[in-house]
Design a protein that fits this description.
The protein is of the alpha+beta class. 35% of the residues lie in helices and 23% in strands. Strands 1, 2, 3, 4, 5 and 6 form a six-stranded mixed β-sheet that branches. The protein has a two-stranded antiparallel ribbon with strand order 7-8. Helix 6 (133-144) runs parallel beside helix 7 (173-190). It is globular, with a radius of gyration of 18 Å.
Length: 215
C-alpha cells in the first residue's frame, strides 16, 4: 500500500516529509499543502506520474553554479514515455524563455524549479484554475522572476496513459477553458488589453489584443 511505501521512505531519510490531509482539497490546494512543507531555497514541482532523469537535480545545481545571476526559475526539456517505460517518444526541445510562446502554450509544463521565496511571494496554486493551475502559476512566477534559466537537456519523462491530457486531450477540456482564464489574468496583471480564446489545437491559446491605438 502507498502508506507503507511512504513509511519506508520517511524512516530511511529525514528529508522526506509526509502529511496526511483530512480531505482531498483538489490538485491546487493539495499541492499548496506540500509546498508549505518545503524548506529548501528552491522547490521543484512535477506531476505525480512524471519520472525524473537520474541527473536532473545535478543539472539544476550545475546551472545554478554556472549562472552569473541568481536564477529565480529553472525549466528543462522533456520527452514522453509509455506506461510500461518501454519506449521514449516525442522529445520536446524547448527554447530559452519566450513570453510570447508561453502566452500561446504552456511549453514549460512540469519539472519547474522555483526559488521558494518567489512561491511565497506569488502565493502558490489557485484552485479556480484547476486543470491549468500549473500554467497560471508559471505565468505568475515568470512575471516576477528576474532571471529565468532553460536547461537544454531532457530532465524528466512525461508518462502517458489513456486518461492523461498528453495522450487524450479531450479527457480534460475544462483545463483548456481554465488555461484561457489564466492567460487573460496574466494580461490583466501586466496591463495589456487583450481577450484570449482557444487556439486551433488543444493546449494552444490565441490572443486578440484590444489596443485602442497602435502600440
Amino acid at each position: 500500500a502507498m502508506s507503507e511505501v511512504l513509511r519506508e521512505y520517511t524512516s530511511k531519510d529525514a528529508r522526506v516529509k509526509v502529511e496526511n490531509l483530512k480531505e482531498n482539497l483538489g490538485i491546487a490546494e493539495n499541492t499548496n499543502a506540500a509546498m508549505e512543507m518545503a524548506a529548501g531555497e528552491y522547490t521543484g514541482l512535477l506531476d505525480h506520474d512524471d519520472l525524473l532523469a537520474p541527473q536532473a537535480l545535478y543539472r539544476i545545481v550545475e546551472a545554478l553554479n554556472q549562472s552569473s545571476e541568481e536564477p529565480d526559475v529553472f525549466y528543462s526539456d522533456e520527452d514522453k514515455v509509455t506506461t510500461d517505460l518501454s519506449e521514449h517518444f516525442q522529445p520536446h526541445f524547448k527554447p530559452d524563455f519566450n513570453v510570447d510562446l508561453l502566452r500561446s502554450n504552456n511549453y514549460i509544463t512540469h519539472f519547474f524549479v522555483v526559488r521558494t521565496s518567489l512561491i511565497r511571494q506569488v502565493g502558490g496554486f489557485r484552485r479556480e484554475y484547476d486543470g491549468a493551475q500549473d500554467y497560471d502559476f508559471i505565468l505568475r512566477c515568470t512575471e516576477e522572476a528576474k532571471h529565468i534559466v532553460h536547461i537544454p537537456k531532457v530532465l524528466y519523462h512525461w508518462r502517458c496513459h489513456p486518461q492523461s491530457t498528453s495522450e487524450n486531450p479531450e479527457s480534460k477540456l475544462y483545463a483548456f477553458t481554465n488555461g484561457c482564464k489564466a492567460v487573460k489574468a496574466h494580461y490583466d496583471r501586466i496591463g495589456i488589453p487583450a481577450e484570449v480564446e482557444r487556439g486551433p489545437f488543444y493546449g494552444m491559446y490565441h490572443t486578440k489584443y484590444q489596443w485602442k491605438e497602435e502600440p
